[in-house]
Amino acid sequence: MAANAEKIAAVAALKQDVEESNAIVLTEYRGLSVAEITELRRALGADVKYSVAKNTMIKLAAAEAGVEGLDEHLNGPTAVAFIKGEAVDAAKAIKKFAGDNKNLVVKGGYMDGVAMDATQFEALADMDNRETTLAKLAGAFNGVLANVAGLLDAPTSSVARLAAALEEKK
Question: Which residues form the signal peptide (predicted)?
Answer without folding.
Answer: none
